[in-house]
């Protein structure tokens, strides 16, 4: 396991965020960008559109830190390595928004595939067994890819032309917010062929 992408930025005021995610390949990333562009043209919302390089679907959020705890990433990686979950296709067939301060718009699915909820559950349990706290707030999985932040209004759940995302892996991401504002993939785990 190579944790060299996790820098020590003590004293620089950066926030280090660690989370497990589904990470789209370039083809899926482009189709998500096309769907986001269509939403932008149709609805003309104000807000901050995310660049396609930031698209992901969060599985388990491990927290924000001024400095990452030294063993957190290693324990999280060990927990993930023990999982055996099947690959699946994720249909992104809806757009909508959440009702929180930043009013994020997203692409999601009406019905989450059982393999996705199984992966989410299994990863949460594996992390708990490894003593790694997750910050889901006791909420159920709401699979979504955020495309817009700080929208000037909400978007009711709206059907979109289905976008089929073949999910063959999941990743651990270290997001550094501050000077770099970058996502670094710490490690990848393949899902099993069915």
Model description:
The chain has 194 residues and is α+β, with helices and mostly antiparallel strands. It has a single domain, classed as Cyclic phosphodiesterase (Cyclic Phosphodiesterase, Chain: A). Helices cover 23% and strands 35% of the residues. It contains three helices and nine strands. It has helices at 26-43, 72-81, 114-129, and strands at residues 15-22, 48-49, 57-65, 88-97, 105-108, 144-149, 158-167, 169-177, 182-190. The strands form two sheets. A five-stranded antiparallel sheet has the order 2-6-5-4-7, covered by helices on one side. A hairpin with a 7-residue loop joins strand 4 (88-97) and strand 5 (105-108). Helix 2 packs across helix 3. The longest helix is centred in the N-terminal third of the chain and has 18 residues, at 26-43. It is globular and about 45 Å long. Its EC number is 3.1.4.58. Keywords: Hydrolase. It catalyses: a 3'-end 2',3'-cyclophospho-ribonucleotide-RNA + H2O = a 3'-end 2'-phospho-ribonucleotide-RNA + H(+). A motif (HXTX 2) lies at residues 144-147. Belongs to the 2H phosphoesterase superfamily. ThpR family.
